[in-house]
Amino acid sequence: MIKSAIQFRPNTADNLIYSPILLRLSKLSDKEAFNSLITNGNISFIHDEIYGQLQELIKGWNPSIRIKIHEYEDLIADYLDGQDIDEYGVWAYYPWSRRLVHLLDEEEFVEVRTNRNQYKITKSERDKLSTKRIGIIGLSVGQSIALTLSMERGFGELRLADFDVLELSNLNRIRTGLHNMGVPKVVIAAREIAEIDPYLKVTCFFEGLVESTIDDFFLKNGKLDILVDECDGLDIKILSRYKARELKIPVIMDTSDRGMLDVERFDLEPERPILHGTVENINPQNIKELTNEEKIPVILQMLGIENVSLRAKASMVEVEQTINTWPQLASSVALGGAVGADVCRRILLGQYHESGRYYIDIEELVADKKHPGSQVPIVRSNPFLPLSVNEMKSLAKRVKQKNRLHTIIPDNDTIQNLVKAACAAPSTGNDQPWKWLFSEGSLYLYHDEHRSFSFGDFQKIASFISLGAAYENLNIHALSLGIEPYFEFFPGGSDERLAAVINFTLVSDKPELKLLKPLDRGILKRHTNRNLSPKSTLDHETLDHLSELAQSIPGAKLKWFTDEDTLRSLAEIIGACDRIRLLNKEGHYDFVHHEMRWTSEDAEKTKDGIDIKTLGLSNSQLAALGVIKDENVVRTINELEGGKALDMLAKRTVSAASALCLITLPKYDLENFFEGGRAMERFWLAATNLNIAVHPVISPLYIFPRIVHGNGEGLTEQNIDELKGLREKFISITGVNDDLAEVFLAKVAIADEPLLKSFRLPLEKTLIIE
């Protein structure tokens, strides 16, 4: 018994049936068909409530009279006037369920079924609606709108277009039963409408809206009066609107997010821009093949990122990472059905004439006022004031220099050229944490903590790597000019704002000179290259040359990683650290307000930070960044324990790498990080001269010290637990130990040179010459 039941499945043809068979037993052919259904065992259930329907009919004719229950028998007998009640009206046979239902015939059925619409919908309005044609594309919210319209009897013909069949995951929002899995969505909707009202006309387009059927959908047997767009296909959204505008048909769309309803009255405004002008420059053919993830920026452009709910924004970051597509809830879909049907009715009855976007945001209207969802934005104050000229001079005067033998004093023009070269060095977030004072023949290098203060600069690691790189640029350029700098580290003792004092002598004949002088031509050319390109292999000779330059700084070690499994493992670690940093309150604030320049105008104005256009991101990645700018979205992602999609950028970056490299120095202290910055810059300049792209992927080196040397400072317990596991994995791959200065982790590859590069502060803002 169980086995045979499991084996039973309706065939494909059965799945396409959606129209009931109406039998009037007063007709001989219909009576024969009725009897055949009975005798052949095609009926699973007979439902005959015709007596109750006749009661309602008579009651509706006499609303002011209280008819007693025993009086109905005579009233119904008089009305039938001798006709057999079993043959009165219509028998509706539903092939998909093998049910036979006895009903009033159409005119009486409509009279009784719409009785309780009066007078919200008058009889004349009902009759007018019965002449109208509505087309619905997409049967999630579309199904809800279709069923609501059917219950109100708000149309004469309904055209349904959807190519998809019902899947289990659709049942979170589509009202139907499990037995309908595998059945086309249009059929499911049409069947339910027929079971509500078998006299309503429904036409199904099983392929959805496609080029071969678009004219039939809009025009066959009469032009549509309204188009309801609830489809996922962005190309169809746009194409259908062009067609609707051409034919002067109004369009409505519900997004099932924040109760947003979109209305475009092309019937009244035939020149109206498509989707209110948000997609006028988008070619539908170009977006046809996009993945769900790639559709996100177009959707955000279409809806307006500021209008999307927090949960929807948070979910968009997860699309095709931890979820397949953007979510919809039954409650939102039900609301959309109500609002969509209401607006359709009022448009068709001439009671509403506007275009626009409207929000019925339940969470806003019925808000939790004691515990509001969005909170006051945090403001991360900088505890450091900008380093002043007087402070710089005061620190310089305290220095008692050692070993100023054979010193030469460069002229001011030379100092300016040297500092210009130094300031071309890389810095975390392009914060440029240096300031310079040239006084009494010595050049002083300062750490301006006001500029570098950020979540990423834990224990000043990032700053001193940058300061070391800046010094190395100065060193290399000086050597090319025939002078040799030498420096004293922390000449001011305990005050770490004064990083070094630099003096100059004539170039000595030393072995590394030949190695370093060619690097000078790369100083102003060097840049971060985030462009993705097909993966290529770098030969051992090239890798050895880059290693030689990095390791020419005493104690520096460079390690290469080229094995695919190792690269994937490192990418997972880097991506996780990127995510932890970005979802951290302070890390997110610094990323949004301190590091990124969200427009090119801002980047050009400030001359620091990272212009978003230099990131080399796809439109979907840029859209994701735009979404997570909102700290409420990040808070929501944290509450949902999401954000795994934020790991993906590192994975994509590393997937195109020829290799990853790691530079370390022997001891975890600022002097070693400074020297590490010098090693990093030698490596990077050498790579620049070889046209090799370098892209730092350094978040692990800046966040691991928080658990290794900072007792988890600034991190949640969840962060700490995850980072401990990542740290163990990192150690097993790289062979590092906690005592080392881990300076530089970067991707190297062959890639096209980026068109945009980061700005640098004007020299007058960084150099003071006494």
Topology of this protein?
Elements: H1 2-7, E1 21-23, H2 28-39, E2 45-48, H3 50-61, H4 72-80, E3 90-94, E4 99-103, H5 106-113, H6 123-129, E5 133-137, H7 141-152, E6 157-161, H8 185-196, E7 201-205, H9 214-219, E8 226-229, H10 234-247, E9 251-254, E10 260-264, H11 284-287, H12 292-303, H13 310-318, H14 330-348, E11 356-359, H15 362-365, H16 389-397, H17 412-422, E12 434-439, E13 442-447, H18 449-452, H19 461-480, E14 483-489, E15 498-506, H20 512-516, H21 540-550, E16 557-561, H22 564-583, H23 585-595, E17 596-597, H24 600-606, E18 610-611, H25 619-628, H26 631-639, H27 648-655, E19 659-665, H28 670-689, E20 693-696, H29 699-708, H30 717-734, E21 741-749, E22 767-769
Parallel strand pairs: 2-4, 5-6, 5-8, 6-7, 8-9, 12-22, 17-18
Antiparallel strand pairs: 1-3, 3-4, 9-10, 10-11, 12-13, 13-15, 14-15, 16-19, 19-21, 20-21
Helix pairs in contact: 3-5, 7-8, 7-14, 12-25, 13-26, 17-19, 19-28, 21-28, 22-23, 22-27, 22-30
Helix percent reads 40-55%
Secondary-structure content class: alpha/beta
Shape assignment: elongated
- Major sheet summary line: 7 strands, mixed
Spans of at least 5 consecutive residues whose pLDDT stays below 50 are 1-9
Radius of gyration computed on alpha carbons: 37 Å
Strand arrangement in the largest pleated sheet: 7-6-5-8-9-10-11
Mean pLDDT: 92
**CA distance, first residue to last residue:** 100 Å
Number of strands: 22
| Tally of helical segments | 30
Strand content: 5-15%
What does this structure look like?
41% of the residues are buried. The strands form five sheets. A seven-stranded mixed beta sheet has the order 7-6-5-8-9-10-11, with helices on both faces. It has a five-stranded mixed beta sheet with strand order 14-15-13-12-22, sandwiched between helices. A four-stranded mixed beta sheet has the order 1-3-4-2. The radius of gyration is 37 Å and the shape is elongated. 41% of the residues lie in helices and 14% in strands. The protein contains 30 helices and 22 strands. Helix 12 packs across helix 25 (619-628) and helix 17 (412-422) packs across helix 19.
